[in-house]
Amino acid sequence: MKQRNGFASPRPRKADRRFAADYWNSTRLLPDLPPAEYESLKQSIAAKGVGVPILVDQHGKIIDGWHRERACRELGTYCPREIRHFASDSERLQVAVSLNLNRRHLDRAQRREIIAALLKADPAINDNHLGQIVGVSKNTVASVRADLESTCQIDKLEQRRGRDGKDRPAKYRRIITSTANETEKALAVMSGVQAAEKPVDWDQTPEEVCREIIGLIPWAEGELVLEPFRGQGSFYNNLPDSIRKDWCEIKEGRDFFQYEGQPSTIISNPPFRNEAGGDNLVVPCLERSLNIATKRVVFFINHKSLNSLTAARLTKYEGWGWGITHFSVWDTKKWFGRYYLVIFEKHMPSIIGFFAANEQYNVEDVGAEDDQSVTLT
What is the dotted CATH code of the domain comprising 207-370? Predict the structure, then answer.
């Protein structure tokens, strides 16, 4: 066995080549090199050999150097390896990302995809540490984490692991609250004291507000209307007699996510989370509604729920055939303050412009001359 640059470089054997072919693609997070860059790398290896050995773990899995390995296989030469022991998949991914990002020019969307992949593999890593690995601010990591938590792709953890490997309570610089219960819980989190478990606040939408919203809808006689989170019936009890109506309520054993009907309209003030401090349910509830309603989805939501309607999600819903045909702001001072009424309709253009990352903004796309909104006072 020869030594090259301090690393073991055994002679190639058929078993080695077969082993490399089995494992070389298994941990890649980054896109392929452009063809011109890859050909340049391959020509350099053909002329000068591999300057930096590829990195593999104790099982032979390639952590860094997929393109060098590929070029060597195509050239019929063996690629030298540095073999390193890794304690976990999370450690493998972190090393792979940190080594590769130093050599790549990635845009914002690609870096966010890498952050999401790392958080799915290791949600306990804290934002500051992951930001240092990927080369972004901790606020960017926190934004990606919030998106994954809101769609239940990762758990919301009370403790996170720092660079030193120690677990610490998740820290927050600020928390905005809407109710007395949320304020009490936030104060407990900020002070480092574990809040006592309390039942979920099932406050109901004021009936006078529900009646106003219902009065805006042009109901079709006999259409099936579903209230998926009935509660005490603020919406359900005030629906007109001319329609057929149905309901779900998890506390009474009728789970909306198990509902098998096909309503024309869904109307509700959906729950923000499934329990006090639990998972965000806004996006799953909305997407479930858009998948089973045939005509219209009417949601009365708070500012936290509104923040879930990102440009990327609205673009996706547009692809499903849904457009926002009504958006209005409601001040309900005797209740929780400001709320938003959002109505989606099937096969209708949206009155709201939305622009995902990297898209060029064009004011003409908003459709200001086609104003279909309703102003409420």
Answer: 3.40.50.150
